[in-house]
Amino acid sequence: MSAAPNLGQAINGGCDDRPIAIEVQHIVKRYGDFEAVKDVNFCVHDGEIFGLLGPNGAGKSTLIRMMTTLIPVTAGKAIVGGHNVAKEPDEVRRMIGVIPQALTSDQDLTVGENLLIYAKLYGVPRGIREKSIADVLEAVDLTKWRDAQTKTLSGGMRRRLEIARGLVHNPKIFFLDEPTTGLDPVSRIAVWEMLNNLKTTRHLTMLITTHYMDEADKLCDRIAIVDHGKLVALGTPVELKNSVAGANVVEVHFDRETEEWQGRLEALEGVTSVQPESSGFYRVITKSGSKTTMQIVELAASLGESLTSLSVQNTTLDDVFIHYTGRQLRDEQVKPVFTMPPRPGAQP
Amino acid sequence: MNRMYAIIEREMRKFFRSPTLMIMSLMLPILQLIIIGNAFGGKIVGTHVAVVDHDHGPQALKVREAFDAIAVNIKTFTTVDYGNEVQAREDVRTGKIDAAVIIPEQYSRRVYTDNAPKLGFVVDNSDLFTSASLEGEMQSLVDALNDPTVKDRLDKAIALEIVELYPYVNYLKYLLPMTVALAMYISVMIGGGMLYIDDKARGVHEGYLVTPITKLELVFGLNIAGAIKATLSGLSIGIIGSLIAGLGVVFHPMIMLQMFCLIVAGSIAFNGMMFLLMVRVDDPLVPRAMFGVLNVLLLYPSGAMYPTVSFPKWMQAMSVIDPFTYAIHGFKSILLKDGGWIAIRFDLAFLTIFGIATLLIATPLFKRTL
Ligand SMILES: Nc1ncnc2c1ncn2[C@@H]1O[C@H](COP(=O)(O)OP(=O)(O)OP(=O)(O)O)[C@@H](O)[C@H]1O
Ligand SMILES: [Mg+2]
């Protein structure tokens, strides 16, 4: 698939005949003169996990806040669960569960108390309150911690408590703003698995925001890339990667760093860009991974230099992001967050 | 309605779970009661007064005997003999002694000849309390010395006979009404001001706002919880303070009931005022900065420490709309005078109406969105 259809899809929001849980049409949010969200369109289908991917300040939280009735919409409209958020906010609120970006559970209360208060706020009938709380605790694997003070929980457990809190009234649509930010890799994977399970057992539609490429890739059925308040691409992870035609990444580590490597690599046929990563280590974006690999080996041999490592990566969402926004998401982030290990199966 | 109770339940559970708010709202008023009560309320004793006797006559001896009587009985001061007037003045100035009495030459003779006898009194008037107390003591001493010679005029002299309406009110008791009001104020300031804005900043309200709770349920939930906390603080201080000040209110059910009603009305008023002030605030620094300013603006014009009649007009105007004024008036009426319902009915009415009015103004200002 080429780039064009996806961009086209981004503009009409990827809506098709499937049942729709969330529909956002020409939505705009202005703070004074500043346009935080600019004419965004998309549809989220029933039962999918939909990801909004973008760097800090892209407008992800602003979008979620409009969809969850937290801030007024400047222009356009959002229809959630069949109700317009501007006209029937209470109907919307009854159908949705929301996990805000910040951890907001009460530290002074126990896990069970936090859930109880929210069950009451959501008007869960007295008769089924107990069962609902027990069920969500089970679902996020916190049953044993029910009577623990929230302040004694680890970050990952608190995140799970927040997830439980958002589910205590059995919503149909679940909004999660950066659900794994601040978690260690193991806890993140645990949260992904949990969300995947919840999706099937509770028949949930989920909209999550993230700035983690791997999270969007592994967890989401479809992804919308947001940048500077605009939706720049939309599709399944595979569609998005395929749309960035021929972009392979070759990572090469030379034994010896010389100033000439950059120029020599750029001169190779099919190479579109070369990014120095560290001493002697380069990330080469090329139209053909296999061809460039060969050329690099030959180049090194002809100069009598040797290589420490050489690897080809398939297209990643990183590359997709660069393609659509013209820059790397990682440039705006704390570096380690986005340093991904080489994919299993990547050819040497 | 159930959602409103959920908000109250959350606040109360937090309140009892972490006693910080309770302790903080009780500590300052109690300390103030004890420290200020004892600092201002006590009598001046044990000061030192120099006596410089240039006369050495029989009348001078009489003065010195009177001084000795004071040293033994009231103990306001003891005397120290000085031979040198210059040295005595210098020692008052440097604070070595608190005052000096100069008995001039020819003092005895002037007394006998009715030739305007004078005693010199040097006092350090930069210390208002000590100098006032010593001056008072000296004046009554001089009056006593004059006594035999003015006897014939006594019948014509106008005398002020002081009738104290209520049993002796010491400073600790006098401060108690302010202390109770202050406890309620601090509870509202921390619980309704700071914690409320902190919750907002932390995103706790964001959590509420995505639930189907209505604006009224949220506003009333927060305010009822705030008023309950202030009431608990006020009652605790009322009881602890009465015991410290030696008032037996605790043993009079009717006074306790009146006290309770006033505290509830006062809590509603304070809380409503705080909610109105904070309803559009997002910055957690604001309530912290306002704490002291509001304290001065509300407490001092209220007549808690000084009577409102002594204020300039603009301050009296402030005291008219200041809920502290009515809370303190009410507490004084029942704690110090046992004035009954009649004495506090206007205070009760004002506080309740003030609380409801501020809440009515604040509610439309409260945003149901972020
Ligand atoms: N209340 C506000 N007033 C003015 N500008 C705002 C307000 N809230 C957000 N913005 C601006 O809108 C833009 C989008 O912010 P938003 O919080 O939606 O970004 P985000 O994609 O969620 O970023 P992050 O990954 O950091 O959470 C930012 O530039 C931000 O400064
Ligand atoms: Mg955000």
UniProtKB/TrEMBL annotation, chain A:
What does the record give under GO molecular function? ATP binding; ATP hydrolysis activity
Listed PROSITE patterns = ABC_TRANSPORTER_1, ABC_TRANSPORTER_2
Q: Where in the cell is it found?
A: Cell membrane
An example GO biological process term is: daunorubicin transport
Protein keywords: ATP-binding, Cell membrane, Membrane, Nodulation, Nucleotide-binding, Translocase, Transport
The UniProt record lists the ABC transporter domain at 22-253
Membrane topology note: Peripheral membrane protein
Q: Which Gene3D superfamilies match?
A: P-loop containing nucleotide triphosphate hydrolases
GO cellular component, alphabetical, reads: plasma membrane
The cross-references to InterPro entries, in alphabetical order and at most eight, read:
AAA+_ATPase (IPR003593), ABC_transporter-like_ATP-bd (IPR003439), ABC_transporter-like_CS (IPR017871), DrrA (IPR005894), DrrA1/2-like_C (IPR025302), P-loop_NTPase (IPR027417)
Please give the family membership noted in the entry: Belongs to the ABC transporter superfamily. Drug exporter-1 (DrugE1) (TC 3.A.1.105) family.
Q: Can you say what this protein is called?
A: Daunorubicin resistance ABC transporter ATPase subunit
Organism encoding this protein = Candidatus Sulfuritelmatomonas gaucii
Automatic annotation (TrEMBL), chain B:
Q: Using the record's annotation, list all stretches that form the ABC transmembrane type-2 domain.
A: 139-369
S-adenosyl-L-methionine in keyword set: no
Query: Which Pfam family, giving just one, matches this sequence?
Result: ABC2_membrane_3
Top-level lineage group: Bacteria
Residues crossing the lipid bilayer are 21-40, 174-197, 218-251, 257-277, 289-309, 342-366
Q: Name one GO molecular function term.
A: ABC-type transporter activity
InterPro entries in the cross-refs: ABC-2_transporter_component (IPR051449), ABC2_TM (IPR013525), ABC2_TM_bact-type (IPR047817)
An example GO CC term for this entry is:
plasma membrane
**Predominant location category:** membrane
Membrane topology per the entry is:
Multi-pass membrane protein
Q: Where in the cell is it found?
A: Cell membrane
Please give the family membership noted in the entry.
Answer: Belongs to the ABC-2 integral membrane protein family.
Record PANTHER family:
MEMBRANE COMPONENT OF ABC TRANSPORTER YHHJ-RELATED (PTHR30294), MULTIDRUG ABC TRANSPORTER PERMEASE YBHS-RELATED (PTHR30294:SF29)
This protein's name? ABC multidrug efflux pump, inner membrane subunit
Which organism does this record belong to? Answer: Candidatus Sulfuritelmatomonas gaucii
